[in-house]
Amino acid sequence: DTVQGGLANNTSLFLVVTTDSGAQSTPFPVNVGLLDYKTVVLQLSPDHNWDFDGDYTDRGITGPQRDFTSGVVGTFTFPTTPICEGNGVALHFDSVTDRREIADSPNMNITISSQERTLSMWVRLGGVQQSLGAIFKEGGGVQNLAFLVGMGNVLLAQLADVAATRDNVQAVSDFKLTPNRDYHIAMRYSHTDNPAEFRVIGDGGLQAV
Questions:
Q1: Gap between the Cα atoms of 156 and 187, Å rounded
Q2: Using one digit for the tens of pLDDT, what is the confidence trace for 172-191?
Q3: Distance, CA of 133 to CA of 95 (rounded, Å)
Q4: Structure confidence by residue, pLDDT tens digits, 34-79
């Protein structure tokens, strides 16, 4: 018998299958525990997936490959303090003007009136942000999908789509992000849900606002 939480990470449990109550036959190892984050994400077949594990390669499954190698401003490093399980490093922005872009992708373009979309990432802030700054932004000033942080590290997610869908919504986190702490953040919208809803998830919890 195993007890939830009773085994450490990376523990190997040997399940023995026997033909009777005495003789041992064909032992084989069974891994017990949760899959690492990167494995789970890839099994979801994402359109695009940038893990920044030492490079800017798009490891998505269903979308066209779009490496983060365009529109580069600033100098970037890969410190050996990963924030995503399964990564050896993370991507570090050391200036508020640093940015990287990808070439246009039909799977990311907000102007396609997509019926549903999910965007998620790991983030660690190095300080307290008062004025709003973009962590991620797709689109321009009128049609966009964006994560921003400000007002003392409050997370803001916003969606503004084409006129036909009339999406124009913002949501904020229930909490402020603590500097030098890892967070998983996500946003999702779906026009197929009833009622349609714009959702923001912070640190594993659905945000109320």
A1: 10
A2: 999 999 999 999 999 988 87
A3: 12
A4: 667 888 888 889 999 999 999 999 999 998 999 999 999 999 999 8
Cα distances (angstroms) measured from residue 60 to each of 45, 47, 50, 102, 162? 7, 5, 7, 13, 26
CA dihedral 101, 168, 176, 128 (to 10 degrees): 50
Tokens of 32: 């017990």
Contacts of 135 (CB under 8 A, 6+ apart): 121, 123, 147, 148, 149
Q: Which residues, 6 or more positions from 172, have their beta carbon under 8 angstroms from its beta carbon?
A: 154, 155, 156, 157, 200, 207, 209
165 backbone dihedrals φ, ψ, rounded to 5°: -95, -20
Q: Which amino acid is at 107?
A: N
Tokens for 21? 């109550």
Residues 176, 153 contacting (CB under 8 angstroms): yes
DSSP string covering 86-150, please? T-S---EE-STT-EEE----TTT-GGG--SEEEEEEEEE-SS---S-EEEEEEE-SSSEEEEEEE
Place of tokens 């779906």: 190
User: How many Å apart are CA 182 and CA 72, to the nearest integer?
Assistant: 25
Give, for 41, the enclosing helix (H) or strand (E).
helix 37-43
Query: Considering the entire predicted model, what is its pTM?
Result: 0.78
